[in-house]
TrEMBL record:
The keyword Transmembrane applies. The lineage of its organism: Bacteria, Pseudomonadati, Pseudomonadota, Betaproteobacteria, Burkholderiales. It comes from Paraburkholderia phymatum (strain DSM 17167 / CIP 108236 / LMG 21445 / STM815) (Burkholderia phymatum). This is Lysine exporter protein (LYSE/YGGA). Its main location: membrane. GO terms for cellular component: plasma membrane. The keyword Nucleotide-binding does not apply. The chain crosses the membrane at residues 12-32, 44-64, 70-93, 124-145, 157-179.
Length: 212
């Protein structure tokens, strides 16, 4: 009697590894947290949806075996690194500017809540321009796949990891958009935005200076 792919030890181990990596604090989670506390639950869910869709794109490439081929094109990877690093530095600038401004000046500069479509696009770009996402998905697929893995098996891996990603990112959006979290955010807003500026800045510089 064959074991279902979703119950195999390798797949469960890959799911666990992906959950730990996704739930660990990083640029995406910190951005969702900041957006949830500053702009509310809908805004955070829109940004999280963009992150998940970006992850889905890399996941499908990995499942189809195309991401390994992309890694062979050094020019494409270099372009992704440059664009992704510059995008992270831009996010660092925005967070730093927000931290520098008083609350009243920030509200006047923002001119209201950002549109949900713009937030979705920001989340999508944050994940699409991260070359490390390709490597992560290649590792997950390779770890969970048997030597002769079939297409349904690969789709099981991708679907399971994407469900984990939606759960994690959705939980961040829901948790940090509660009234209590938003009150805490207002009291530490400048410190939090300053911390985000440092995280985004270091991540962008690391991406720009890392060797291919």
């Amino acid at each position: 009697m064959t074991t279902l792919p979703i119950l195999s030890a390798n797949v469960l181990f890959a799911y666990s590894a992906y959950f730990v990596g996704t739930a660990s604090p990083g640029p995406s989670n910190l951005a969702i947290m900041s957006i949830a506390t500053a702009d509310g639950r809908k805004a955070a869910f829109s940004f999280a949806a963009g992150v998940v869709c970006g992850s889905c794109f890399w996941a499908m490439l990995a499942a189809l075996g195309l991401s390994a081929a992309l890694l062979a094109f050094s020019g494409l990877m270099a372009g992704l690194k440059i664009f992704g690093g510059c995008y992270l530095l831009w996010l660092a600038f925005k967070s730093g500017r927000s931290a520098w401004q008083p609350r009243a000046a920030q509200a006047q500069t923002a001119g209201g809540n950002p549109s949900l479509r713009r937030l979705y696009t920001r989340g999508l770009l944050l994940h699409l321009t991260n070359p490390k996402a390709i490597l992560v998905w290649i590792s997950v697929v390779a770890l969970a796949s048997p030597p002769n893995g079939s297409a349904p098996h690969m789709l099981t891996i991708v679907a399971g990891c994407l469900a984990i990603g939606m759960l994690v990112f959705g939980s961040y959006a829901a948790l940090f958009s509660t009234p209590f979290a938003r009150r805490v955010y207002l009291s530490v807003r400048r410190w939090l935005d300053g911390g985000l500026a440092v995280v985004f800045g270091l991540a962008g510089l690391k991406l720009l200076t890392a060797r291919a």
